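step=encode ok
step=design start
structure_in=
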């Protein structure tokens, strides 16, 4: 299953039933799980930990040295979860001493020409569109979708089940279950279609929408909104996830629609 024109370092650990196409390069200190497929001209660098049944297409570069001047050659790694697909010419940098690893979860799709920088953490079942650029230390929650040509500022966080529209400039955190659109990027409603596809009930979606009415539609700052939510709305997994995300946001969250996009809603 390994083509003779591929280069495989003798210290690489290749599981059973892995296909490696001609001219792929597999360096030392690489682990590739069962059933994975590595396309022609893909480069799998040191520190790669690739799960089972992954597909890595032509020209992709996995676990490259970080594009970070603070990187001094420390030992770091890149994890890619089971059943994840990495399309053509995607580049993924391994971690730095800040976090020591870059992580991509299971069942993800990273489309062509995307870049995932050092110390990023991408959850499970995420879709990263064509040419999306993730700067260092970006965190993306499970089931999030980042549409094509979007640029994500370093240290930004995008919550679970969020959807970011194409060609967005993400400078602030995007809370879970939301849609983000326009320029400057702002709240565009709850991602109700995506939530229904994943089994959320109408009642759960309505409760999420009610939480965001406090945050975005009542003219409250974040502290006031969170206090009222915790007093007036019943606790639930979704409510608490939203509250904790906003409370722990270091960059601040995206603004309300039609706001002036000043910092009036920031704490």
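sequence_out=
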């Amino acid at each position: 299953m390994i083509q003779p024109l591929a280069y495989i370092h003798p210290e690489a650990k290749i599981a059973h039933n892995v296909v490696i196409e001609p001219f792929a390069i597999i360096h030392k200190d690489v682990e590739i799980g069962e059933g994975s497929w590595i396309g022609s001209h893909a480069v799998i660098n040191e520190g790669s930990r690739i799960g089972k049944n992954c597909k890595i297409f032509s020209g992709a570069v996995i676990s490259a040295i970080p594009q970070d001047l603070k990187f001094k050659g420390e030992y770091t790694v890149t994890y890619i979860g089971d059943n994840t697909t990495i399309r053509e010419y995607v580049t993924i940098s391994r971690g730095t001493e800040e976090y020591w690893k870059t992580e991509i979860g299971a069942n993800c799709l990273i489309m062509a020409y995307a870049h995932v920088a050092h110390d990023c953490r991408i959850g499970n079942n995420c879709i990263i569109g064509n040419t999306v650029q993730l700067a260092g230390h970006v965190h993306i929650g499970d089931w999030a979708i980042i549409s094509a040509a979007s640029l994500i500022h370093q240290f930004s966080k995008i919550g679970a089940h969020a959807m970011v529209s194409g060609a967005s400039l993400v400078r602030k955190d995007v809370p879970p279950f939301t849609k983000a659109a326009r320029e400057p990027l702002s709240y565009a409603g709850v991602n109700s279609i995506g939530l229904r596809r994943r089994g959320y009930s109408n009642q759960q979606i309505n409760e999420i929408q009610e939480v965001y009415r406090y945050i975005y539609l009542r003219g409250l700052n974040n502290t006031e909104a969170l206090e009222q939510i915790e007093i007036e709305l019943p606790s639930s997994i979704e409510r608490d996830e939203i509250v904790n995300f906003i409370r722990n946001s270091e960059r601040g969250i995206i603004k309300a629609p039609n706001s002036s996009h000043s910092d009036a809603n920031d704490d």
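step=design ok
step=annotate ok -> The two ends are 57 Å apart (CA to CA).
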